[in-house]
Amino acid sequence: MYFGDNLRRAEWNYSLIADVDISTMAASAGISSLMARLLLIRGVSEPDRVAAYLNPRFGHLPPPDMLPGVTEAVAQIIEAAAAGNRFLVYGDYDVDGVTATVLLHSILSAAGFDAGYYVPNRLNEGYGLSSTIVDKAFERGIGTIITVDCGTSDHAAVEHARSLGIKVIITDHHTPTRRPPEAEAIVNPKLASGDESMLPLAGVGVAFRLAWGLAQALGLPEELILAQLDLVCLGTIADIVPLTGENRTLVRLGMDTIRNCGRTGIKEFLSVCRLKPEEINENRLAFVLAPRLNAAGRMDNALWGARLLLTGDREEAFAIAHKLEQFNNRRRSEEDAVLAEIVSRIDAQDYSDRQVIVAAGAGWHKGVLGIAACRLTELYGCPAIVISMDDTEGHGSARSVEGVNILKLIGAASEHLLRYGGHASAAGLTLAADALSGFDEAINRAASEAYREEPPCPRLRIDAVLQPHEFSFALLDELEQLSPFGPEAERPVFVARDVAVSKVTVVGKNSSHLKMRVESAGSVADAIAFGRGADAPAFKNDAKYDIVYTLEENSWQGRKSLQMNVLDYDGVRP
């Protein structure tokens, strides 16, 4: 290899699997050598596990009470119902929280319990259970509050609820920053020791285990639980948790449930989004449905999403789906404005000494901060924190890049914060207006110290060598058996070696994308490299290249073709 053209942007890591292991797996499981290799890379090392991995079933899931806290929570709910308690399911305003809220409320209602639900307003109520909400619940005669996708850090509100005689059951999946509250029961994989297989569950996955355990205890039909898998799938995909183990099974089964359109709200939602049920996959859930559901909470009120998923009225569902579309259009406009302002600042200043981008502005819409931070990480390859400031406080969202635990870095600078919480890859925070510069300095100092020895570098894991002449739709169908694809279960990544590149053009807004034709051994394949339009002049007709890519189907004007989605490339010697 040579790097004179400086085209490569990531470190390429080749997955090494012994040929004897591949041939043994292929022969024993009756699969191709390529599929055997890909399964071994994904940790499927026994032939008798292959069928379950490629065709997951509901019966493959571990029983609900394997998650610590479920048994206690079920007992508390049944006891509260027997005592005549009214229930309130209290969720978060993102897709994970909304789907979890709808799911648990549906099961409580199906059981005949007196249950209501509430999702807070992001803009004026904020995240988590608050004492104000507890007071309102008390006024309405609520006897038991069940949180979903929140609660682990809401000590004051839980204590206040119990002082009023309200029981609190917490279901959550966020990492606690201190000792959890004294609730009647807590179901949170991050608090469980021993079995780590459930750690990646989304908030809706945790709520599903409680709902499933309750349904079993009450003798409710299994079909009722199976019907909720569409919600589990949607919330799990939207929360960007690892699609391995239990999550993979839940999403795979849930996509089938969505395609069957048993839920009126989802059926009308697909219609407004111009999607056919059979077209549903993880990409369309993540990039079409989830953003629109999230837009309700970002721009107005997340309760619109809950109502859409709960209603059985087609006209109401259609009207709400249209409203979500309008919210999403507004969200895009606000997001573009915030991002443009931040990028103009970065272009005008020297950020070369920054490990973490900390950008703050007065009046920025709080609903788009997380998305703007995510787009900054994509543009600049480093963690980003976007903060909306008012006269006294700033509220921010953080997003990270591979290899950088943003929650840990924020924790190192927490002396400048009023509140913070989240995950290794995404977090939220609140600070006093006069603490901004101190926080910026502290978190960048913490990042410099943490990654001084080995600065984080983008890495690409390459599964196999696959040349264009080997492409076929049959091969693509075989690869799709590994779906759903997502975090820690990425679409197979291949490298095509010593290929020629011709007809290089730029496409898209601001000519930001690179379109090309890849030629090898008499075969030609179309390829696109998103965000790499500036590289077009570097390609030479008389040179050969190694190209790292995923193989996908492209549909244009009714014509389907195979396309290389290019992730990186590098020149090789002529």
Topology:
Elements: E1 11-14, H1 19-29, H2 33-41, H3 50-54, H4 70-82, E2 86-90, H5 95-110, E3 115-118, H6 131-139, E4 142-148, H7 155-163, E5 167-171, E6 185-187, H8 203-218, H9 222-226, H10 229-238, H11 245-259, H12 264-272, H13 282-299, H14 303-310, H15 314-348, E7 357-362, H16 369-380, E8 384-389, E9 393-399, H17 406-412, E10 419-422, E11 426-432, H18 436-450, E12 459-462, E13 464-465, H19 473-480, E14 494-507, E15 513-520, E16 523-529, E17 544-556, E18 559-572
Helix pairs in contact: 1-2, 4-8, 5-8, 5-10, 5-14, 6-7, 8-10, 10-11, 10-13, 12-14, 12-15, 13-15, 14-15, 15-16
Task: Report what the structure shows.
The protein contains 19 helices and 18 strands. Helix 4 crosses helix 8, helix 8 packs antiparallel against helix 10 and helix 14 runs antiparallel to helix 15. It is 40% helix and 21% strand. Helix 5 links the parallel strand 2 and strand 3. The chain folds into four domains: 120 residues, OB fold (Dihydrolipoamide Acetyltransferase, E2P) (Beta Barrel); 201 residues, inorganic pyrophosphatase (n-terminal core) (Alpha-Beta Complex); 87 residues, no CATH class; 99 residues, Diaminopimelate Epimerase, Chain A, domain 1. It is an alpha/beta fold and 574 residues long. The strands form four sheets. Strands 3-2-4-5-6 form a five-stranded parallel sheet, sandwiched between helices.
